[in-house]
């Protein structure tokens, strides 16, 4: 659920999700609404409905649910009259799964959120593979997936994830700096790229 701000700023507004927030967020449309606001920037309920293929009534209701727990907020600089603009309240979300061990409902919500991220990863990969033959050779060679099995203790896996996340944040900050100083007339071939970071134990009988 880590999404880069759309306007090129480098500071990170991170929210450490609490039990109420994860319970509200564990909904397919709410996940998509929050993701869209984080990646694409502020929008009205009508624009979000068109973007996500739903109706304005549904987007308005679920935006209010997200707002009640502080995940989205109205954008006062854009709203006018009855037209309400919404923006994400943070750039990224964070939680530790063990934060909710004593709350069965929140724990179930976290499991749903994680499963939805896996589903999204598979969906995006399939969409790319369906059209990659129409893309340039540079993009086809650059994109891809790989896997590796490493013998690690929990602390080493945590250190590995921290190191990889630091690399992603460095690339994010460099990209933001380039966006601020780039001449649009000389823009390189840049696309939004989804990067998923995952590492979990392999469950079998050998270890």
In short:
This protein is mainly α and 207 residues long. It has helices at residues 19-25, 28-40, 45-52, 56-68, 104-131, 137-142, 154-181; strands at 14-16, 43-44, 72-74, 85-88, 92-94.
Note down, in words, how this protein is organized.
The chain has helices at residues 19-25, 28-40, 45-52, 56-68, 104-131, 137-142, 154-181, and strands at residues 14-16, 43-44, 72-74, 85-88, 92-94. The strands form two sheets. Strands 2-4-3 form a three-stranded antiparallel β-sheet. A two-stranded parallel ribbon has the order 1-5. By secondary structure, the chain is mostly helical. Residues 1-11 have low confidence and may be disordered. It has a domain at 14-144: Winged helix-like DNA-binding domain superfamily/Winged helix DNA-binding domain (Arc Repressor Mutant, subunit A).
Q: Rg, please? A: 19 Å
Helical residues, percent: 40-55%
Strands, total number: 5
Parts with pLDDT < 50 across at least 5 consecutive residues: 1-11
Q: What portion of residues belong to β-strands?
A: 5-15%
Average of per-residue pLDDT values: 88
Return the CATH topology of the domain at 14-144: Arc Repressor Mutant, subunit A
Distance between the termini: 30 Å
Anisotropy-based shape = globular
- Name the assembly state: single chain
Main beta sheet: 3 strands, antiparallel
The CATH top-level class label of the domain at 14-144 = Mainly Alpha
């Amino acid at each position: 659920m880590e999404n880069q701000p759309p306007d090129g700023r480098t500071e990170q507004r991170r929210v450490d999700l609490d039990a109420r927030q994860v319970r509200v967020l564990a909904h397919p449309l709410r996940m998509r609404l929050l993701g869209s606001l984080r990646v694409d920037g502020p929008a009205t309920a009508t624009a979000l409905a068109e973007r996500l293929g739903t109706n304005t009534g549904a987007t308005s209701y679920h935006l209010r649910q997200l707002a009640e727990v502080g995940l989205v907020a109205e954008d006062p600089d854009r709203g006018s009259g009855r037209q309400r603009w919404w923006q994400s309240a943070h750039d990224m979300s964070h939680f530790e799964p063990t934060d909710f061990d004593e709350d069965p409902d929140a724990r179930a919500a976290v499991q749903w959120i994680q499963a939805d991220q896996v589903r999204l990863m598979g969906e995006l990969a399939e969409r790319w593979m369906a059209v990659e033959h129409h893309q340039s050779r540079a993009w086809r060679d650059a994109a891809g997936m790989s896997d590796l099995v490493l013998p690690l203790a929990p602390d080493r896996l945590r250190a590995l994830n921290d190191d990889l996340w630091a690399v992603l944040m460095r690339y994010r900050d460099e990209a933001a700096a380039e966006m601020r100083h780039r001449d649009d007339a000389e823009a390189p071939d840049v696309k939004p790229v989804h990067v998923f970071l995952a590492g979990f134990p392999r469950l079998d009988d050998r270890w």
